[in-house]
Design brief:
Helix content is 27%, strand content 6%. The chain is mainly alpha-helical. The protein has a domain of 53 residues: Multidrug-efflux Transporter Regulator, Chain: A, Domain 2 (Orthogonal Bundle). The chain has a two-stranded antiparallel ribbon with strand order 1-2. A hairpin with a 2-residue loop joins strand 1 and strand 2.
Length: 109
């Protein structure tokens, strides 16, 4: 079922014709996401014979698709600090200190 591997670099249009696709949009999307191997040659998207062989394998055997490298594991959950207790025995936890404070002189002198 697979076609012979070409001996030259293919354009996305040639790859679409090879697999009978109507549009090259899916080819560009798969190449950009890294699902399909591809190369940039002089700023243009191209597929080497090795790339075409791997794409052929990915299309004909989708169950053996290579997975992208897994993202690094998430950092461990942060440990919660114990609740700070009040230094004053008169205040309970969760209450604001309402003792009067001295008035600051706002004039800068």
């Amino acid at each position: 079922m697979s076609k012979p591997i070409p001996d030259k670099y293919l354009t996305p249009e040639e790859l679409a014709a090879r697999y009978g696709l109507d549009s090259v949009h899916g080819i560009h999307r798969n190449a950009a996401s890294g699902a399909w191997p591809s190369r940039k040659v002089l700023g243009k998207l191209r597929f080497s014979p090795e790339d075409v062989a791997e794409i052929d394998e990915l299309i004909t055997h989708p169950a053996t698709r290579r997975r992208r490298e897994a993202a690094p594991p998430p950092p461990p959950p942060r440990q919660r600090r114990p609740r700070q207790t009040s230094a004053s025995p008169l205040r309970g936890a969760g209450f604001a200190d309402l003792t009067p404070r001295p008035i600051r002189d706002r004039r800068g002198s």
